Amino acid sequence: MQSQQKQYEYLEHTADVKFLAYGKTLEEVFENAALAMFNVMIDTGKISGGLIKNVYLKSPDLESLIVDWLSEHLYIFEVDEIVFSKFHVDRITEEDGEYSITSWASGEKFYPKSHPFETEIKAVTYNQLKVERIKDGWNVQVVLDI
User: pLDDT tens digit string along 98-138?
Assistant: First the structure.
């Protein structure tokens, strides 16, 4: 579901790509962070949603969870050559001091002729990483190594 608020914005960074994603819920901010990351690489508006990939992960904290989750989508792109345009997080839960995420992403096979590639992302980093609860929801700041 599209929120009426801004989903994300790119911030200035000398060498890499830095963005701030927004969401009314923790799940929505994760979805918007993934969309921001994929829009660095490719125009997600030109991707149909025929292929679905489920992603379930566990991490020790929210910061690790966002890095692991974004990294998993990057890995699927690199190995399975799938570009995503829609991300849905069913739930993020905390249990016994660990966080888990249950989600899916939809997209299609990557074809260079129909998907002009813009920027290669080498990694999702912990540099300047922030996951913070704010008055109206959540913010996530991420730096991508390009």
Answer: 999 999 999 999 988 888 888 999 999 999 999 999 999 99
Q: Is the dihedral of CA 106, 109, 113, 114 positive or negative?
A: negative
Query: How far is it between the farthest Cα atoms of the chain?
Result: 47
Rounded CA-CA distance 113/116 in Å is: 6
- Picking from 53, 40, 35, 56, the residue whose alpha carbon sits closest to that of residue 100 is 56
Tell me how many degrees the CA angle 65-79-2 measures, rounded to the nearest 5.
Answer: 50
Domains in the chain, please, with CATH?
8-145 (3.55.10.10)
CA gap 31, 110 in Å, rounded: 20
